[in-house]
Amino acid sequence: MKKNPSFSWLLLLLAVSCGEPEKKQAEPESDLNVVINFVRAALDGKFNEAKTYLIQDSLNLNLINVAERSFNNLSQEIKDGYRASSIRFPSPMIKVNDSTRIIIYSNSYMNNPDTLKVLRMNGQWLVDFKYLYQHE
Questions:
Q1: Three-state SS string across the chain, please?
Q2: Mean pLDDT across the chain, nearest whole number?
Q3: What is the pLDDT of residue 17?
Q4: Using N-to-C axis directions, what is the helix angle for 58-72 and 31-43, rounded to 10°?
Q5: C-alpha to C-alpha distance for 119 and 98, rounded to whole angstroms
Q6: Which residues pair with 119 in a beta bridge?
Q7: Of 43, 57, 98, 113, which is most buried by a Cβ count within 10 Å?
Q8: Greatest CA separation found in the chain?
Q9: Each residue's pLDDT tens digit, 55-77
Q10: How far is Cα 95 from Cα 82, in angstroms, rounded to an integer?
Q11: Going from the N-terminus, what domains does the chain have, and what CATH number goes with each?
Q12: Confidence at residue 18, expressed as pLDDT on a 0 to 100 scale
């Protein structure tokens, strides 16, 4: 009996394509990556995305909503400046303890340093945005 090699390849291809896709387990975000993603989203005017990196308490949500309204009221030129800017870290991160970091950052457009706190909660790093307004 003569074997048909193209039929064998077709069966192999079909078997491979019907298998379950390999599920990648999402790696937890690092403290610094959360800050970078949060700040980048805010600089780009993507406040719904920025909110996903926040501790979900009423003060943080109110403050990010105020920041969004302020951003929306800016001229297009200023918005474009923020979107084109890069994020800078003028000082080393301060490790308060295993679950708290203080990070000073600025953007290349305004170059005005600000400070954020990130907390590890339930295995996930989240931004405590209110710290920007509450620290000395």
A1: CCCCHHHHHHHHHHHHHHCCCCCCCCCCCCHHHHHHHHHHHHHCCCHHHHHCCECCCHHHHHHHHHHHHHHHCCCHHHHHHHHHCCEECCCCCEEEECCEEEEEEEECCCCCCEEEEEEEECCEEEEECCHHHHCC
A2: 84
A3: 40
A4: 40
A5: 9
A6: 100, 126
A7: 43
A8: 85
A9: 999 999 999 999 999 999 999 99
A10: 28
A11: 28-134 (3.10.450.50)
A12: 45
Report the amino acid identity of residue 126: L
CA–CA dist 23, 19 (Å, integer): 12
Residue whose structure tokens are 């909503």: 65
| Residue 126 vs residues 24, 57, 121: alpha-carbon distances, Å | 22, 11, 7
pLDDT tens track for 12-64: 333 434 444 444 444 457 999 999 999 999 999 999 999 999 999 999 999 99
Q: What is the 3-class SS of 68-88, one letter each residue?
A: HHHHHCCCHHHHHHHHHCCEE
Rg (CA), the chain: 23
What is the amino acid identity at position 82?
Y
